[in-house]
Amino acid sequence: MQTPWEYRFAQRTQRMGSSAIRELLKLTEQPDIISFGGGMPAPDVFPYEQFMEACERVLRDQGHLALQYGATEGYKPLREMIVRHTNRLGIEITAENILITTGSQQALDLLGKILINPGDRILVESPTYLGALQAWAGYGAEYVTVPMDEHGMITDALEEALRTGPKFIYVLPNFQNPTGVTLSLERRHKLIELADRYGVPIVEDDPYGQLRYEGEHLPGIVVLDSQLRENGDQCYRGNVIYLSTFSKTLAPGLRLAWVVAPPEVIRKLVQAKQGADLHTSTFNQLVAYEVAHGGFLDQHVKLIQKVYGERRNVMLGAMDAYFPPGVEWTHPEGGLFLWGTLPEDQNAAEVLKAAVEQKVAFVPGAPFFPTGGGHNTMRLNFSNANPEKIQTGIARLGKVLSEKMGQPVSS
Amino acid sequence: MQTPWEYRFAQRTQRMGSSAIRELLKLTEQPDIISFGGGMPAPDVFPYEQFMEACERVLRDQGHLALQYGATEGYKPLREMIVRHTNRLGIEITAENILITTGSQQALDLLGKILINPGDRILVESPTYLGALQAWAGYGAEYVTVPMDEHGMITDALEEALRTGPKFIYVLPNFQNPTGVTLSLERRHKLIELADRYGVPIVEDDPYGQLRYEGEHLPGIVVLDSQLRENGDQCYRGNVIYLSTFSKTLAPGLRLAWVVAPPEVIRKLVQAKQGADLHTSTFNQLVAYEVAHGGFLDQHVKLIQKVYGERRNVMLGAMDAYFPPGVEWTHPEGGLFLWGTLPEDQNAAEVLKAAVEQKVAFVPGAPFFPTGGGHNTMRLNFSNANPEKIQTGIARLGKVLSEKMGQPVSS
Q1: Pick from A113, A238, A274: CB nearest B134
Q2: Do B188 and B219 share a domain, yes or no?
Q3: Are residues A213 and A227 in the same domain?
Q4: Residues B276 and B163 in one domain
């Protein structure tokens, strides 16, 4: 049936396209498939009891607030909790610097709306987070890319990219999605120095920063940038917009995240958010505050670190055991993902088709490269499946890879 | 402090502007002000007990789903519940026709994103819903307007507007925000007939359709349009995109609404929603389903009708008693708002300033007119304040109006 709408779609929809990952993941929805495809937390670590108690308290004592319309900026006590958390990281901000968003995906969408004119170039790591590319496609973003190695964005290639005049730099310094690699401290300094020299501001996306399983915590870009102030106090300079989320520490089903930005940026984001969804669910904000305040989150993060750290170890061990020579992969110090590179003559999308037949799935890496490439790369999630399934799934995938690569299957 | 961001705001932000209403309502946040300004439901009618029980059941039995990422389209049982509800209204659709959105505001934003090219004209009632104007400002919408009277959009003026080539018609047929008026059955038929003749599709926004306090329910535009099918069965034709919400029947704090549209429109909206917020809170969808299914909503709507119907009567009675001659107002058969018109020489924004000093507030009407006008109009909400406050507030406002209009204050 033809309807009058299909002739009326806006020009920007031609750039949007459906997510390649989404289409591929539809293949993997059969229950007997072991999927390393999504980026889902483990349901094992959701704090069900705490949510139950929080819902009851919130509805009993503050139901009239929780179920009502709320401020676009977000629930004040939650914003103030985030301020205290941010201050602890080493930068002084106030609630005027915070906007609550409906997941970090909305923060990316709103930033695109207030910053990107059609044709504007955004400087990104290659590969980079697919959700940002999806959010910004509708605003007509173009990209200039900087390649990565095991220490993150190769900052030696940054200056050339900066000279093309990008509007801003978008970077995921900790356990990057998709590669799992972490930007080294030296390169963080270099990034800030060059960004400052060229006057190009930075959007730092940090969904996983707290989920570190080995090594030392590294200060965020936003923190290091604050230290550039001449008078030596660590006041927020406003050059870096910082994004984080409760999706990985509490639960993604709440759709709760936040932006740290200068007040004039927050005001524009608030205008954009008014038009986008008025405000983020008041109920979820009150419930998250009730669960998270008073120190529960810090303690809960330790549980997540333990569970995901073990799963990462199991996956790395299984890859050692089952993957054929010629496949390489990253060793993430935290987060949810690791990244595999097959020999040049392999196509990860083809490998996925064979893998799905063997009841295992992953995400081919090509869609994460905004300017092309990566046909032989793959992203594997280690947080969602339990250790037993990780073992079985990686064994299956090892078999598929060995067959594709014409090598004897290890037993 | 200057930051690099303020030089980087996208061109579209110049059109966005902050909501005039929002700025005015900030004046009214003092606790001793009686505000008829917002569009908030009464906290008295929120079903707290049902929410408490639903949260417990959902977290106990389906917590692993409720707290996890979910499908962009929405929670299948909730979509199917909406399908049954829509079928009962008289049109046959399936879950392929439904998208769950983060409030109706998001539905408006996503429709803007997939349909509006900069400069496209949208045909709207004048005045119309301010949230639509806010959502579409960022997409560069222009407007062609059709005036209203007490029977809604004046369809005699519609044909001339249709000949300007609008992309679609946006209409709120039931208890319109801001005027509270309802489009008559005769004009509904005329609207559909003319839209069909010119091949221009319709977006029907119906947040309040169930909240009728007097008179007969009128079939929706989407229902009447379905009856145009030549073979006589009431299948959804796809010419009308229909929006509705749980904000007025359950609770706005959940941010839960839905779109009924042809599958090809739903697919585009899903792509846009992926980039905008991935999906609407799974937790809220499961809780709303748990509260709403099995007939609770029908029974609950009767309570809301009783409470709001009484408040409307109290407000209308108080206006009769306290407003000076020369002020006119609508008699809404449902919804949350009524609309006042002052003499031409009065400016409602000036009246508001005087009113706030007397501790009462409303929304001046001018921002609801996309192409100007309405300086002497005002929107009054009757759902949020209780009858006693409505009496007191309208008495205060009557005094302010009498003074402004140079008439003796009625006692």
Answers
A1: A274
A2: yes
A3: yes
A4: yes
Q: How many CB pairs under 8 A join A and B?
A: 280
Q: Which residue of B has its CA nearest to A286?
A: B253
B6–A134 C-beta distance less than 8 A: no
Q: The complex's ipTM?
A: 0.95
Q: How far apart are CA B81 and CA B129, in angstroms?
A: 27
Distance from first CA to last CA of chain B, Å, rounded? 54
For residues A65 and A196, state if they share a domain.
Answer: yes
User: How is residue A241 written in tokens?
Assistant: 């917009």
**How many residues does this entry show for chain A?**
411
CB contact under 8 A, A67 and B251: yes
Strand order from edge to edge, sheet including A202-205: A98-101, A257-260, A240-245, A202-205, A168-171, A121-126, A142-149, A152-153
Contact assignment for B276 to A70 by CB distance below 8 Å = no
Calpha distance B123→B191 (Å, rounded): 12
| Closest CA–CA distance from residue B39 to any residue of chain A (Å) | 9
Contact B278 A131 (CB under 8 A): yes
Please give chain B's pLDDT, 411 residues, in tens: 578 898 999 999 988 876 666 666 676 677 899 999 989 999 999 999 999 999 999 999 999 999 999 999 999 999 999 999 999 888 889 999 999 999 999 999 999 999 999 999 999 999 999 999 999 999 999 999 999 999 999 999 999 999 999 999 999 999 999 999 999 999 999 999 999 999 999 999 999 999 999 999 999 999 999 887 666 666 788 999 999 999 999 999 999 999 999 999 999 999 999 999 999 999 999 999 999 998 899 999 999 999 999 999 999 999 999 999 999 999 999 999 999 999 999 999 999 999 999 999 999 999 999 999 999 999 999 999 999 999 999 999 999 999 999 877 655
Instruction: Verify that B239 and B351 share a domain, yes or no.
Output: no
CB contact under 8 A, B138 and A238: no
For testing contact with chain A, the best of B57, B162, B277, B381 (most A CBs within 10 A):
B277
Residue-range definition of the domain harbouring residue B102: 69-295
Domain count, chain B: 2
Identify the CATH number of the domain in which residue B18 sits.
Answer: 3.90.1150.10
Query: Residues B245, B371: one domain?
Result: no
